[in-house]
């Protein structure tokens, strides 16, 4: 029997839409708030809606943050969505929040600009900058759904696997080794969002040298 994908319930995630997407795909999954479930998982989805400080408060209080750091270093695959894309970094400008520190970098707020509203909300075209198994069968400039005021800025720009434009280019996908995260809401992005999610579920969590990012995920 296929091991279920573990979906993190950290009291703020967009669980219902992620659950609906997984059910549609016929994928076995299990919600959990237990750190030990994460430590023993073979596939983890860290969904996201919410605020960095509140999310980190829950992760730190429950021990889930440490479990996620250990899991990221385990070699098993992990998908982060929206806030799950942001808190893997060192720090977020949202309420000056120290984050998990799995990936070096910061999360910045969009700067106000004429004609641009913050939060960035709606459908936006995404450019894939390098190959990755989760992108298979998805055309360049496919539109995905976004709702966010902050965006990730990795220390190593080579970790940016996809980007979109909102006043200027910003990272949409961070990919390194067994970890892949999306600032967009793949679970709300229609056919191609489901395709991306399906690709993640089918992926073995490994990259060829040609597709791998630099370095290793930090514990």
Task: Give a verbal description of the structure.
A hairpin with a 4-residue loop joins strand 5 and strand 6. The chain is globular and about 50 Å long. By secondary structure, it is of the alpha/beta class. It has six helices and 13 strands. A nine-stranded mixed β-sheet has the order 2-1-3-4-13-12-11-8-9. A four-stranded mixed β-sheet has the order 6-5-7-10, with helices on one face. The chain has a single domain, classed as Rossmann fold, CATH 3.40.50.880.
Q: Can you tag this structure with a few keywords?
A:
4-stranded mixed sheet; Rossmann fold; 6 helices; 9-stranded mixed sheet; globular; 219 residues; alpha/beta
Describe what is shown at a glance.
By secondary structure, the protein is α/β, with parallel strands linked by helices.
The number of domains: 1
Helix content: 10-25%
Question: How are the strands of the largest sheet arranged?
Answer: 2-1-3-4-13-12-11-8-9
Low-confidence parts, pLDDT < 50 over ≥5 residues?
Answer: 210-219
Instruction: Quote the average pLDDT.
Output: 92
Strand segment count:
13
The CATH homologous superfamily is named Class I glutamine amidotransferase (GATase) domain
What is the 3D shape?
globular
Radius of gyration: 16 Å
Distance between the termini: 30 Å
The total of helices stands at 6
CATH class annotation: Alpha Beta
Examine the secondary-structure arrangement and name the CATH architecture.
3-Layer(aba) Sandwich
SSE order, one letter for each helix or strand: EHEHEHHEHEEEEEEEEEH
Helix/strand/pairing category:
alpha/beta
**What is the CATH fold-level name?**
Rossmann fold
Q: What is the strand content? A: 25-35%
């Amino acid at each position: 029997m296929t091991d279920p994908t573990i979906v993190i319930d950290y009291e703020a995630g967009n669980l219902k839409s992620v659950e609906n997407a997984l059910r549609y795909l016929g994928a076995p999954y299990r919600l959990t708030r237990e750190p030990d479930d994460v430590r023993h998982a073979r596939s983890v989805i860290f969904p996201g809606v919410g605020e960095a400080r509140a999310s980190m408060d829950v992760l730190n209080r429950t021990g889930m943050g440490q479990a996620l750091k250990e899991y990221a270093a385990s070699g098993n695959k992990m998908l982060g969505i929206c806030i799950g894309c942001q808190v893997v970094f060192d720090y977020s400008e949202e309420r000056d929040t120290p984050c998990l520190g799995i990936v070096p970098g910061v999360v910045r707020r969009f700067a106000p600009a004429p004609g641009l509203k913050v939060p960035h909300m709606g459908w936006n075209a995404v450019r894939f900058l390098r190959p990755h198994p989760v992108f298979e069968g998805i055309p360049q400039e496919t539109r995905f759904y976004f709702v966010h005021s902050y965006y990730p800025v990795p220390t190593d720009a080579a970790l940016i696997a996809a980007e979109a434009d909102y006043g200027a280019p910003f990272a949409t996908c961070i990919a390194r080794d067994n970890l892949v995260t999306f600032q967009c809401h793949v679970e709300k992005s229609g056919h191609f969002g489901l395709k991306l999610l399906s690709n993640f579920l089918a992926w073995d969590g490994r990259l060829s040298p040609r597709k791998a990012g630099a370095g290793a995920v930090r514990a």
